[in-house]
Every structure is written in structure tokens, then in C-alpha cells.
Amino acid sequence: MSKGANIGLASLSDDAGSVVVGLSWSSTTGDGDADVSVLLVDDDGKVRGDADFYFYNHPAAEDGCVQLLGKVPTENGSEDRISLDLTAIPEDVATVVVAASQYGGGCFGDLNDLRMTVTDRSGEALLGFSIPDATIETAFIFGELYRRNQEWKFRAVGQGYETGLSGLATDFGITVDEGEGEDEVPSLSGTVALSAAAADPGEDADEAHPRPPASADTDADADAAVRTLIPIPTQPTDSTTRAAAPAPSPAGETPRPTRSRGTRTTKKKVTLPKAPKKSLAENDSWKPARLFPVPSYKSDREREVRATSVLLSVMAEVPEFGRRLTAGFGAPAGRMQTFTEVSLPHGDSPKRPDGVIRTERAGKLWTALVETKTNGNPLKSEQVQNYMDIAARRGYEAVITLSNDVALEGTPLVEVKTDGRRKHKVSLWHLSWAEVTHQAQMLIRHEGVGNAAHAWLLQELLHYLQHENSGCHGFQNMGPSWVPVRNGIDSETLCEGDPRAVEVVESWERLIRQVCLRLGGELGQKALPVQRARRGSDPKSRRTELADRLCEEGKLSAELRVDGAQSILSITADLRTGKIRTSIDVPAPDGGYPLSVAKRLMRVLDDAPADLHVETLLEGRSGPRGTLERLRPEPGDLLPKDGMDITGFRLSLFKGMGSSRGSTESGFIRSIDEAVDRFYGSVVAQVSQFEQRRTVRGRPVAGSAVAG
User: Fold this and answer.
1) Angle at Cα 560 formed by Cα 538 and Cα 654, nearest 5°?
2) The whole model's pTM is what?
3) Confidence category of residue 705, pLDDT binned at 50, 70, 90
4) Pairing between β-strand 364-372 and β-strand 398-403 as defined by DSSP bridges
5) Is residue 600 over pLDDT 50?
6) Which of 269, 233, 260, 326 minimizes the C-alpha distance to 524?
7) Is residue 706 a contact partner of residue 164, using CB atoms and an 8 Å limit?
8) Alpha-carbon dihedral angle through residues 646, 647, 648, 650, given to the nearest 10 degrees
9) Are residues 361 and 391 in contact, defined by beta-carbon separation less than 8 angstroms?
10) Any idea what DSSP says for residue 470?
11) pLDDT (tens digit per residue) in 544-586
């Protein structure tokens, strides 16, 4: 579509009652960051009240008509997805506005391929709208869906704002008071207000992040010099306690879109308590009673049946969770019922899918068949094909496969054929058990659910999924090509063009996707792999290029970005040396004395591991380097002898690599998980803890409030 054009959704699809809107972009320097927001406005073009503004701290409507599904990786960037159940939009809402904003000095002109798409329930693209002329805008209205004569239509808007989210919000009835700083926060109550942590870092912020010793603040030059150290939102906590419950908002007030993302807050939500209650057991051998016990199963079939029943029952009883898992598949936000072991006729003998999901809205049914696998069992094309055929004949909308494998774009997990002559379309979707676990973590540890009983059900589900006997542990095997490729690299006999290297690259990408899901669930943020893709590149050619590089260098590399963070975490597995390197680059600030900057950096990393490698980055080359143990007594050793300007510091940890292809104690997958956990918890969290309590000239630093 062209800018300003409009079209009725009914003319594009027979079933456009639920749609998924996608906002996407790409970058040759790594995926840029932007925040999606949705506004529901009336005939006057204004929001009706607090609940009509959806953003990262208010991601879903109570009735499920709007759900921000978050970012997902694409071929050459990422896509932010929004589920809209148009049948559930209140009658007095005339228009649904879809927008995005940037912060921290970024603008949309820095990104390529800005595009909005709308798909129907079957996943078929209905329309697309590209914005080729973005320049210095920091906020954009991509498009809007509006009612006209009881029909929903779409208009391609493409309107930009140089004034950011605050300027956009003002146009829709959200009053913004001009403050001293640039980081203004739109407030639906009519004023601009910072979060407690941002407004008074000496109290609330330090309650969550204790102050370092007083001596750490005595050097004014260093104080200013380190203010650009990376802001990554939250320090991961112990696996049994995780994140604290969000502070409740005043009655009837939607949480303000503050940039302090360590705690996501929504109206009247319940999360897990910060610390577990004291046990009444006499000793540690007593095991608490579980709603979903995990005995030692005799067969994979028993695991699959039980895992399916446990998951589907919780989906039906916890609306937020059921909608979270099905909204992206086009399911309406209605009453959900789930079933297991349903017998459906097919040829000479009936077929029994592992489960059926049914959602009813306004008298219409949405139905999906579910095929489940646990442990390392692969999905079978013939089995999935049978369910696709059954769904098409019976008028069902979808088939959902669920396994430990992770889907990649451009690489189907199973091959199926669809009959193009059928008017009714059936969509095929895939879920990983790692994604199911991620969504449960996000709800009960960060975003919250409707009541305490729902939180408890999700906690029991999470305990079940993470139990060693459940078989629902996510991606667990690097595949049959892993050992031959490692041996070929070791003996220098692996040649470019070897298809086994491509298989290893695909397994590596699946592993990184799972690392992102797990890390994001711990932090309460979206974590995504960074794609540095050239315009027009496709997944197959990109993976072939990476495979050739693996054959030449013997290394697997990846980068990931935590939503809201400015810096990128790099992971490199060197198959020749058997070492894993995790690192981040901390940019050097402008101004300040180099020695003061080095001293301050040492104080920030006071609790970091002694074997942390610190490398000074100079323009065009590397500078002095050393371990933290050696540099702590002599920070001046980080300074270049020739007096060149310091551009930043690279912080790295090294760890031995597991040799086997799996996730056992000696496995490669386990070693990657442990390396990321150690680095993030002991290094990144140290830097971010310091950054979150800094203030500059009386206002929050980047990352603590929405940038105008």
C-alpha cells in the first residue's frame, strides 16, 4: 500500500476478525531498538482513559482485545508483533492506532526496511506498508485500523514525529508537561512524571540497587566519565526467588511508561513473592506436594500425554497464559476449552491428535489440533500432514506442533502439502517448550496474572516443565553433524561447502534462540539474536556464508541484545581451542581524565571475577589489556603509552567448552548456558547496577525514561 491509502479488511479475507500486526526493520550494524505502542481512540480522536494506551509496561487488555506479543527474529532483523481481536474492541472505540518510538538518541532514519504488515488468523498476509523516507523522526504512526459502517478498514499513515513518544501522545489527548530534561514521560493522568526509581535515585533506586561505598563517588571527573556505561535493565536473581513483584499502581491508573524496565507493572496483577516462605518441613528430604508430580515414566508416549494434559489444562484455566500462547496464531480472545486424546475420523481408522484447543468469541469457534513431542523425539511429517488434512475437512483453523526443537525462519520443521483448491485455509504453527517456559516466567515473575490462584497454577506448571523427568527442556542436541564437524576442524580437513557445517550453524542458531528465551525469562525483557544482514539477504545464503566461515576459522559466533539495552553481548565458541568467550564493549565517555575513567571502571567491577579480561579499545586498534586481578592495583596499566584517545573497554570471560553434542554436564549446550549465566550475573549486572543509580544534571540517564 502507499501512504494515505485505505482498504477494507473484509475485502482481503473472509475471516479478519482477529489479525496480527507486525512492525519490522533491519540494520547492517545490528538490530536497532524501538518500542511499539497501541492507542484506542474514540470518534474525537482521543483516548477514553488510562486503559486505552498499551506499551511495554501495559502489554495487554484485560479482555485480550489488544496484546503486545513482543519481538521475534526475522530473516534480517526483528519484527514486533501485536494481536488485535477486532470483535472484542469496545463499540465506542473508533480507531486503533499502531505506533512505535525510539529513545536514547536513536531515530528511525538509522533503520532500513521499515514495514508494517497485517495477517489474518491463518497467518496469510493481507497487506503491507513500507516507510522508505524516515530520517530524524523518533516516533512514527505506522497505520491505523478504523470502523466504517460496521466494517474494519486499514489506513497507511506513515506520520513521523521529531518530538518522540511525548509528541505523539499529545495528539491523542495525553497531556505532557515540559520538564527540564529530555526524557519526558507521557502520563495519562495529565502530567509528566518519572518513576520513583528515576525521580529519586537516592531512595527507591538504591533500595533495589544498594549504593557502593562512599569513596566510589569522590572523583567528579570519573563520575561524569562513566555515565555511558551500558544500561541493561535487571540483575538476574537466584532461580528460586527471581524478580520481585511489581509495585501496584493506584486504583484505576495504568502504569506510566517509564523507561526503568527492571520491573514491569500492570493493573492489579499478582506475581511470585520476592522470597519463598520458610518451609515447615523437618528436614530437606521432605518433598512438597505438587499439583503436577513428575514420576519416572516408562515411555516417551506417557511423557507426551502427561505434558500435553498439564499444559492445556493450565492454558484453559489461566486466561492470560492461554491467550499469550495462542494470540499470535490468530485465536480470538474468548472463552477457551482444551481437550486431550480426541478421536477424529480419517480414512479407514480414526486419528488421535494429542490435544485440541477451542476458543469461542461472539458465537464463532476457533479450533486448533495439537501434536506434541517431548525429549529429543522429532515431529513426523506424515502425522502432521494427517492432522492438516483433518483440520481442512472439518473447518478447523490451525495445527500447532510442540516439541523441544526451535523453529528458524526459512527452515521448516516438517514438510506438509496444502490443497490450494480448498477455500478454507489451515495454518501450521510451531511452539518450543522453551517458549512455553519463557511465557510462564514472564507472567508470574514480571508482568503478573489476574489472581493468586493463577500465579500458583503457573508456578506448578513451571516446576513441572523444568523437572528433569518431564522431557520438556527445550533444544538439547546439536545434531549428528556436530562431532564430525568438530573432528574436521581439529584435523583441518573440513572444507568450505560441506553441508554438515550448515547443519551445525542451524543448530547453533537454535541454541542461541533458546539462550535468548531463557535469559529474557529471567530478566523480564525480550532478548533477541542480533542479525547484521545485508539488504535483500535470505536465511539460506546467510547460513551458507556462516558455515564457510566456520570451516575457515573454526568459530561459531553470535550476538544478542536485551530489550532496552544499548550494548550487545557477544558469544564466541572457538572449536579449535575449546574455549567459549562472552564479552561486551563498554563505550568510553567524552571528557574526563583517562586515569579517573580507569579507576572508576575498576570500582564498578569490584565484585566481578578476578579472571575477567579487560581490554582498552583505541581508534582503529586494540590497546593495553589484562585480567582484573592484575589491573585492580594498577588501573593506570589500561592507559595507552602513546596517549591515544580511549574509545571504550571490552570486558570478556573465558570458559572451557563441553565436548559432547547434548546438554549433559559435559555437553556443549550446557557449557554455553553456564557461560552466559556467569557473564551476565557477575559482569553485566555489576555494570548495569552502577548505571541504574547514576544521574546526570538532575535527570535520569539513558534507559531510565522514555526519550522524547
Assistant:
1) 120
2) 0.80
3) very low
4) parallel
5) yes
6) 233
7) yes
8) -100
9) no
10) S
11) 999 999 999 999 999 998 876 778 899 999 999 999 999 999 8
Q: Who contacts 615 (Cβ-Cβ below 8 Å, separation ≥6)?
A: 622, 623, 624, 625, 649, 650, 652
Apex CA 438: angle with CA 291 and CA 464, to 5°?
20
Residue 57: strand, helix, or coil? coil
Which cell numbers in the block locate residue 203? 531512595
Q: Does residue 68 register a pLDDT over 60?
A: yes
Q: Which amino acid makes up residue 645?
A: D
Of the CA atoms within 13 Å of residue 247, those in its CB half-sphere come to 11
Q: How confident is the model at residue 525 (pLDDT cuts 50, 70, 90)?
A: confident
Cell representation of residue 216: 566510589
Res 421 pLDDT > 70: no
Which triple of cell numbers denotes residue 62? 484485560
Give the pLDDT confidence score for residue 664 in this predicted structure.
Answer: 65
**Least confident span in 139-153, 233-247, 350-364:** 233-247
Cα distance between residue 701 and residue 703, in whole Å: 6
Spatial contact of 138 and 101, defined as CB atoms under 8 Å apart: yes
Q: State residue 113 phi and psi, 5-degree precision.
A: 55, 45
**Residue 68: beta bridge partners?**
82
Does 159 score more than 50 pLDDT?
Answer: yes
Average pLDDT value for residue range 171-197: 47
Q: Please say whether the beta carbons of 152 and 8 come within 8 A.
A: yes
Name the residue among 174, 135, 175, 176 with its Cα closest to residue 158: 135
Q: Pairing relation of β-strands 613-618 and 579-587? A: unpaired
- Tell me which DSSP letter residue 275 carries: S
Q: Looking at residues 671-695, what average pLDDT do you find?
A: 76
C-alpha cell at 219: 572523583
Query: What are residue 117's DSSP bridge partners?
Result: 22, 128
659 pLDDT band, cuts 50/70/90, is confident
Strand order in the sheet with 364-372: 335-340, 355-361, 364-372, 398-403, 427-432
Quote the mean pLDDT of the chain.
80
Cell numbers placing 120: 489474518
556, 669 contact by CB (below 8 A): no
Report how far residue 623's alpha carbon sits from residue 635's, in angstroms, rounded to the nearest whole number. Answer: 14
The DSSP symbol for 216 reads G
Q: How confident is the model at residue 308 (pLDDT cuts 50, 70, 90)?
A: very high
Q: What tens digit of pLDDT does each residue of 479-517 get?
A: 999 999 999 999 999 999 999 999 999 999 999 999 999
Rounded Cα gap, residues 328 and 365, in angstroms: 17
Neighbours of 160 (CB within 10 A): 21
- Residue 216 pairs with which residues in a beta bridge? none
Q: What is the per-residue pLDDT for 129?
A: 92
Cβ proximity of 578 and 675 under 8 Å: no
According to DSSP, the β-strands at 427-432 and 398-403 are: parallel
And the C-alpha cell for 146? 478504523
Instruction: Please say whether the beta carbons of 505 and 411 come within 8 A.
Output: no
pLDDT-based confidence at 198, cuts 50/70/90?
Answer: very low
Residues 64/360, Cβ–Cβ less than 8 Å: no
Of 411, 420, 358, 328, residue with least CA distance to 122: 328
**What is the C-alpha separation between 60 and 540, in angstroms, rounded?**
35
Q: Pick from 365, 336, 368, 366: which is nearest to 354 by CA? A: 368
Count Cα atoms within 13 angstroms, Cβ side, for 363.
0
**CA 503/CA 483 separation, integer angstroms:** 12
> Amino acid identity, residue 599?
K
The average pLDDT across 649-676 equals: 85
Q: Are 352 and 387 in contact (CB under 8 A)?
A: no
Cβ burial of 94 (10 Å; 0-12, 13-18, 19+) is: middle
The cell numbers describing 271, all together, are: 506475581
* Residue that is written with C-alpha cell 575457515 in the block: 552
